[in-house]
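Re: methionine sulfoxide structure - here you go.
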Amino acid sequence: MAESIYIPQTQDRTEVYEALAPQIKALIENESDLVANLANIAAVLKEAFDFFWVGFYLVKENQLVLGPFQGPLACTRIAFDKGVCGACYTQKQTMLVPDVEAFPGHIACSSASRSEVVVPVFDSQGNVAMVLDVDSDQLDDFSEADKVGLEKLMDILSQTL
Ligand code: SME
């Protein structure tokens, strides 16, 4: 397993996502433990983008349960019909939220969180197995480039499920 990753020093997030994709693939393809892989993906995304909060909520016991993450303490359980994460699970699509206060039902795990992107991760049957949640303390911090880049990374993860 690689012990370090290469992160291009650029403000162009697309370039960073493209550099990360093959490295994340290499990082997780020879490790069968899901928690270990999710922990490393969260760590890589934190290091590459210095996101305020980045982590996973896993589908368990008919709800979303906190998994590996980087950032401040977070809520542990989210009902399928609650918050941005619940909307992502229910609608099976990426939620790009430029202003969390304008999103009905947003769950404020931290009052510092201002914008958010949540990406579904599918299992081999096409069911949502988990969601990747990324939060920023800046308003409108995420764009189509993040949606596309994160979806590609989550697609790589999906192929291991
Ligand atoms: N804001 C999310 C909850 C998770 S935390 O922000 C880490 C939501 O509304 O689903």
